[in-house]
């Protein structure tokens, strides 16, 4: 969502909260696909943690138009009219003045009206990881395995690696690439990468582009010698015990690789803070794990353009990283990925895991600082 539209929603948040029963909106929010079912459950079940209107501002460029239709469908035509101008998308925040006499501008402290009762203790901002370190937002390591001893050549992977290098350099990461590493070398380079000086940066990004499979229900990734590394062993290199400087900082792992040989042929459907306090934390936290495909399934690659996953991720991140959070961008990637169809009429979808994630990740905070409250691990642990 562009800053002007976000500002319109936030400026009118109190006015809407007083007049709208969010429970009446829920079926129409589902109908217009503004939020996922899981997000709606969080918003409605945990109103003290999620502000409906703040969350709305993170839901993409069409969210304002969709929300206006939701209000009409739910019988709130008058309230919907404050978003209407001669343009289909409001650009001037002051344009709404002609639709109602009083415009409230009391900030973001008031929350959503759940069940028709105005709640003053709703959190008015999204909890976000700090993501604004300079000169680098973080360090990004890309392992690009193309040639293998007993596996096929990964045509197109060099295209992915070069495009990812450009993308994350542009976002603000210091990028390092290594190619055709044997399994033992992968571990050695990952351990070396984990020993970076993380004190001056806010995050870690790792991409591994290679062949993969599963062994005894564990995901594995192959080195150029066709020997494998367990993904769980990679996670441990960066966990809170082995890489303490990254504790409480987001660690993003992306794997573009097969996870087995199963094929998804799809189905046909009809479209309609106490410093002295000592606490124990989990070993693996603040980890975002993104797989290009489902467990045990194949992952597809174009020999000239690169993998489906990297093509779609690079396109979406390039256009949206300034205004959208990581999970929202990955949902967009997944929609694009799921729209593809191989020559064998097979499909592919993302698999995303979160290990102890406490907050939202924006790869750029400049345009969303007004809706973010920086996650403070010390405060969180002390409570």
From TrEMBL:
Q: Does the keyword Hydrolase apply?
A: yes
Q: Which InterPro entries match?
A: Caspase-like_dom_sf, DEATH-like_dom_sf, Pept_C14, Pept_C14_caspase, Pept_C14_p10, Pept_C14_p20, Pept_C14A
Record-annotated Caspase family p10 domain positions = 277-338
CDD domains recorded for this chain?
A: CARD
Q: Which UniProt keywords apply?
A: Apoptosis, Hydrolase, Protease, Thiol protease, Zymogen
GO BP annotations, alphabetical order: apoptotic process; proteolysis
Q: Name one Pfam family in it.
A: Peptidase_C14
Q: Where is the active site?
A: 211, 258
Q: Please list the residue ranges annotated as the Caspase family p20 domain.
A: 138-262
The protein's GO terms of the molecular function aspect are: cysteine-type endopeptidase activity
Family statement drawn from the similarity comment of this UniProt entry: Belongs to the peptidase C14A family.
This chain's protein is named: Caspase-9
What species does this protein belong to? Araneus ventricosus (Orbweaver spider)
Encoded by which gene?
A: CASP9
């Amino acid at each position: 969502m562009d800053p002007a539209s976000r500002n319109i929603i936030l400026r009118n948040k109190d006015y809407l909260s007083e007049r709208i029963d969010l429970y009446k909106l829920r079926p129409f929010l589902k109908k217009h696909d503004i939020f996922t079912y899981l997000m709606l459950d969080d918003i409605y079940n945990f109103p003290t943690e999620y502000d409906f209107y703040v969350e709305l501002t993170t839901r993409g460029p069409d969210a304002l138009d969709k929300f206006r239709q939701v209000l009409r469908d739910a019988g709130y035509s008058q309230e919907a009219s404050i978003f209407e101008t001669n343009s289909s998308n409001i650009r001037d925040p002051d344009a709404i003045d002609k639709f109602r006499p009083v415009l409230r501008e009391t900030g973001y402290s008031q929350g959503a009206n759940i069940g028709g009762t105005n709640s003053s203790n709703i959190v008015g901002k999204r909890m976000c990881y700090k993501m604004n370190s300079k000169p680098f937002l973080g360090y990004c390591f890309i392992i690009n395995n193309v040639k293998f001893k007993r596996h096929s050549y990964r045509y197109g992977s060099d295209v992915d690696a070069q495009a990812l290098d450009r993308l994350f350099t542009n976002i603000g990461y210091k990028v390092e690439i290594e190619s055709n590493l044997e399994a033992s070398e992968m571990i050695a380079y990952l351990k070396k990468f984990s020993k970076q000086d993380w004190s001056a940066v806010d995050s870690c990004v790792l991409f591994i582009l290679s062949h993969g499979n599963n062994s005894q229900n564990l995901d594995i990734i192959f080195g150029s010698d066709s020997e494998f590394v367990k993904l769980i062993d990679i996670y441990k290199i960066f966990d809170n015990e082995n890489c303490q400087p990254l504790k409480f900082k987001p660690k993003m792992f992306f794997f573009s690789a097969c996870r087995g040989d199963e094929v998804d042929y799809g189905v046909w459907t009809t479209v309609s803070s106490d410093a002295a306090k000592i606490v124990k934390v989990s070993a693996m936290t603040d980890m975002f794990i993104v797989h290009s495909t489902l467990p045990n399934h194949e992952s597809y690659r174009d020999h000239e353009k690169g993998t489906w996953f990297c093509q779609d991720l690079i396109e979406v991140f390039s256009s949206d990283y300034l205004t959208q959070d990581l999970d929202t961008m990955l949902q967009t990637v997944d929609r694009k990925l799921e729209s593809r169809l191989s020559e064998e009429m097979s499909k592919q979808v993302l698999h995303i895991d979160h290990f102890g994630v406490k907050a939202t990740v924006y790869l750029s905070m400049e345009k969303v600082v007004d809706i973010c409250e920086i996650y403070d691990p010390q405060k969180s642990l002390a409570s």
